[in-house]
């Protein structure tokens, strides 16, 4: 069993079947990770399911409603260890309502294509996740 705190996040793509773009979000806080890029999401609150928390976080952070596709199952008991203190579960998702905006915690959003997926400074724990996602990407 992991004692790490669970974080849930979305790989927001333009198309679940044939993704060509991925949304990356730049952290504005806390200082230790400000300027680094991540998958939008956050911690699961007590009493919430993982997917309830993800819908809530995406609405709070980006102002969007989403449809969740498949979970990107990770190598660490099905999840992804991202830091000493956090383990992440991640779902592919598409926006069904709203236009993503950096409302809280982020100061910039960027849609990355197959050839630019690695161009931003992803948080350390996210790099191998981006690599795994890249395998399913099509050139735009
Ligand atoms: N949302 C999100 N968090 C990530 C990713 N990659 C990664 O290492 N993290 C880290 C950053 C944060 O320390 C933690 C997520 O918790 P949070 O977004 O509530 O940030 P926080 O600083 O309040 O967390 P904490 O250090 O107080 O426990 O996971 C990612 O792709 N998305």
UniProtKB/TrEMBL annotation:
It is an enzyme of class 3 (hydrolase). SUPFAM superfamilies: Nudix (SSF55811). It comes from the Bacteria. Its EC number is 3.6.1.55. Its cofactor is Mg(2+). InterPro entries: MutT-like, Nudix_hydrolase, NUDIX_hydrolase-like_dom_sf, NUDIX_hydrolase_CS, NUDIX_hydrolase_dom. Pfam families: NUDIX. Residues 3-135 form the Nudix hydrolase domain. It catalyses: 8-oxo-dGTP + H2O = 8-oxo-dGMP + diphosphate + H(+). The keyword Hydrolase applies. Keywords: DNA damage, DNA repair, DNA replication, Hydrolase, Magnesium, Metal-binding, Mutator protein. Belongs to the Nudix hydrolase family. This is 8-oxo-dGTP diphosphatase. It comes from Isoptericola luteus.
């Amino acid at each position: 069993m992991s004692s790490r705190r669970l974080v849930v996040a979305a790989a927001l793509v333009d198309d679940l079947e044939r993704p060509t773009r991925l949304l990356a979000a730049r952290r504005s806080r806390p200082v230790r990770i400000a300027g680094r890029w991540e998958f939008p999401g956050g911690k699961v609150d007590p009493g919430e399911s993982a997917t309830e928390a993800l819908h809530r976080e995406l609405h709070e952070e980006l102002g969007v409603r989403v449809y969740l596709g498949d979970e990107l199952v990770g190598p660490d008991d099905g999840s992804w260890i991202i830091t000493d203190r956090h383990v992440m579960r991640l779902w592919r998702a598409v926006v069904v309502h709203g236009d993503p905006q950096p409302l809280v915690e982020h100061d910039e959003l960027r849609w990355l294509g197959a050839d630019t997926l690695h161009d931003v400074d992803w948080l350390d724990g996210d790099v191998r996740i981006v690599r795994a996602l890249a395998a399913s990407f099509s050139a735009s």
